[in-house]
Specification:
Layout: H1 3-9, H2 18-37, H3 44-61, H4 74-81, H5 97-103, H6 111-120
């Protein structure tokens, strides 16, 4: 994807109506992943394995029924727009934000990016 293509994917960051989509996906995550599995998971490694399975199922196997993708998976819908992206694109790693937020004071939301950039040795926005 070129930079001009990626900017055309942006949904208008900061728009109030985007919050409804974020809240809905949080509810789906709670109902389909956290509530059914959290009490049976015995450790952090198992949590990451189960979370990655859920992310794969949610993005590549589970049909969604919102306006732009009736009955399609996110993988199928994005393939229509950007053919050639592999399934690895949809497997972003799960994070435990509790550890990060407890260790670092934040000025704004972008400090999280600077924190991970510092850990990886890559210069980020906050450096």
């Amino acid at each position: 994807m070129t930079s001009s293509e990626s900017s055309s994917c942006a949904s208008g960051r900061g728009r109030w109506k985007d919050n409804a989509y974020v809240e809905r996906t949080h509810r789906t995550d709670d109902e389909e992943f956290y509530v059914p599995t959290l009490q049976s998971i015995t450790g952090l490694e198992e949590h990451f394995i189960q979370a990655l399975k859920y992310i794969y199922t949610f993005n590549c196997l589970r049909p969604h029924f919102g306006k732009p993708m009736p009955g399609k998976t996110p993988y199928q819908r994005v393939q229509e727009l950007y053919p050639g992206l592999t399934k690895q694109f949809y497997l972003f790693p799960p994070l435990v934000l509790d550890y990060i937020s407890a260790q670092e004071p934040f000025i704004g939301g972008h400090d999280l990016l600077a924190y991970y950039s510092a850990l990886s040795g890559v210069e980020g926005r906050g450096q």
